[in-house]
Amino acid sequence: MTATFYTTDKTDHYHVAYVGEDGFGMTSIAKGHSHGITPGEAPTEVDPMLGQPIPSEPIPVVEPAIDHSHELVPYVPVQKKVKEDEKEALDGLLMDFAEAKTYEDSSRKSGYESEDMYSHNQWNPMEEKELTEKNRAALTINRLEEKIDNLSGYQRQNRTEIKYLPIEGTDSRACDILNIFVKVILDNCYYAREKSKVFEDQAIVGRGLFNIYEDYERNLLGDLVVEKFKWDECYFLPHEKEDLSDCDGIIKAKWYSRSKILQLYPELKDKLNPENKEQVRPNMRSEDWDQRISEQDLIDTNAKKYRLLERIKKEYTRYYVLANPDQDIFYPAIGWSKADVNAVKTIPGFSVIPRVSYILRNTKSVGDKLVEDEYMAEDDLDFPIVPAYAKKRGDAFWGKIEAVKDLQRLVNKAYSQFIDIIAKVANYGYYYDSNTFPNKREAAKFRKNASSPGFVQEVANVDKRPVKEEGVKFPGEIVKAIELFNVDMRQIMNVNLELAGMGAGANQSGVAMRQKIVQQLLGNDYIFDNLSFAEKVLAKIILRKIAKLYSPSRIARVVAAHAAKMDQSELSDEFEYNEEEIASILQNADFSKYDATIGESPAAPSAMMGNFLMLMELASSGVQIPASAILQFAPMPNKEKIIAAIQEEQQRQQAMEELKYKTEIEKANIARMGRANYLQTPGTQPQSAVPGY
Fold it and tell me: If you count DSSP H runs as helices and E runs as strands, how many of each does the chain have, helices first?
């Protein structure tokens, strides 16, 4: 039920009042009394053009007390202060940037190191330079790239799609509409590829980022875009929960050239001088952040680049909910004075529930210049960045590479030493003196052909031929150590041969091989689970963004155009709605509070093939599964036509079986009664020509 709150005119006292949908209400108690409220009469107004009464709502009337009455005035909450002054706003932004930068510092250093190691940059520059100067090997045998690529390949081969599932059966058609529309949105921004790139960041450095925003450049009505965001271009204030529900703010930090900045903010043309370092933070120093942020964090004078900081932060407000459960009234008293809230407690049936809410504030700066500072819409309560962590403990996050960095360095050193030892111990040579060969020409011939098989050489005396000096035997312990390092690498990273499709027996079925791969992934399950969790958080934000950005008619046009292209097995029912029917369904669906749960469905051909093979194996083992049901999961084109042909053939076979059954009954009855008597029996007609009668 909706209630409207008023205050009475202020003489020597005033009341807070509420009026329900039926026009009746009550005031609070003041000076030991209260007033009832009645609907009153509707004012009579006449349309001057039509000369007819204009429908209007009754005006509530305060019932008089013994010696006085009141007029009602709509309650006007106190408006929240919109902005601080420019210095306070910029100082607050930089303080939060300093806090987030400090909070993530160690994880970022590890992340950059992990990214270097994945990208084949695994040696300390000073150590590599020293080895090179000594003419020693500094090899990089990158075992990490293979492991990460196997994980990435598995994710790509088993992609899933966002799926909205109805909680109640009556919501299934609205969910079908939603699934088609969201698929169109995500396909338009190549979401599958973007998701795989997020996964790679997640696996390598420990955190991948989704970015969701409204794009008005190509369409003035606005389009929803989901993309990968660079993992190190967003800072987070301290948080424990991976859905950011306990995070107070995020800060996007992207570098732009001066020309790009001026395209975005032309008003800065005369305010940005890359040669003047003092212009970065003139007279705006703060003890809270000054030591943690340097000029290099905000401006690159050599490259003439500036860092655009965009902080999106929660600003909390404590308020009270005015509750009357008997009348289903729950009214958020935001901006009310404490005295007025307490006054409502005196109205019979009302109680007061304390609550805390927040609104998002978007503040942007370039260098020391504040360029934007505004509150976002009251119903826009989602951060535009959704993180997918690999592992997060406290203030640290890390990926798959972190645990094997030392081992990878050891592998590189072992192989480099291996090459150095080979160069030394594999060396052999010959001893000869000045009398070994008859002349210098034969000596030169020996030096040239000594390593050739079957060479012929003239010597002065066969009893004094050149003496061969064999090299030192190569130590096999080094080979064993390298093999051990490789085993350790597989065990620590939990990416074994089976994940790459190797190591399976020749007689194993496809389902058994997939099951073995799944077993090998147990040590990596967390990373896929965290990606799935991030995608579900993203799916809820998409739901709320759709409610804000797209009208039912716009959704209906898109869905009607794409419904025919959808695989009917992905829908809850045969989808044959036209644009008007879709719009009608959407009119009754509140996507912002939609009664649906978030799930996943296979998207990649290999994932669908896995389900198909599992059904095939079940059918081959004797489980009765209709062929049409199996084909529903087959990743093949035009399968609807094949399914329809199978069903048509099944119906024909069933009709033939029924005809055969009836024919057998006729034959039995004719044999028992005789043909003439059978045909004379009321209600009997021959179902078929029975041979022999």
Answer: 18, 22
Contact predicate 457/445, CB 8 Å: yes
Where do runs of H (alpha helix) occur along 325-474?
Answer: 338-344, 405-425, 440-449
Q: Which residues of 49-88 are buried (b: 16+ CB within 10 A; e: fewer)?
A: eeeeeeeeeeebbbeeeeeeebebeebeeeeeeeeeeeee
Q: At which residue do the structure tokens 């799935």 appear?
A: 532
User: Which residue type occupies 662?
Assistant: K
Give residue 299's identity as a one-letter amino acid code.
I
Contact 18, 4 (CB under 8 A): yes
Q: What is the spatial distance between Cα 554 and Cα 418, in angstroms, rounded to a whole number?
A: 67
**Mean pLDDT, the chain cut into blocks of 10 residues (693 residues total):** 78 87 89 90 71 74 86 82 74 92 95 94 90 87 89 87 76 82 93 96 97 90 94 96 96 93 87 56 51 81 89 92 89 88 92 92 90 87 96 94 90 83 72 86 86 83 82 66 72 63 50 54 85 94 88 85 64 63 70 62 56 62 66 62 72 80 73 63 52 43
Residue located via tokens 């395209």: 263
User: For residue 99, what are the contacts with CB-CB under 8 A and spacing of at least 6?
Assistant: 237, 238, 289
406: left (phi over 0), alpha (psi -120 to 50) or beta: alpha
Amino acid in position 667: K
From the centroid of its chain, how far is CA 226?
A: 9
The residue with tokens 């510092």 is 105
- pLDDT at residue 562, as a whole number: 79
For residue 572, give the DSSP letter.
S
pTM: predicted TM-score of the whole model, two decimal places: 0.73
Three-state DSSP at 518 gives helix
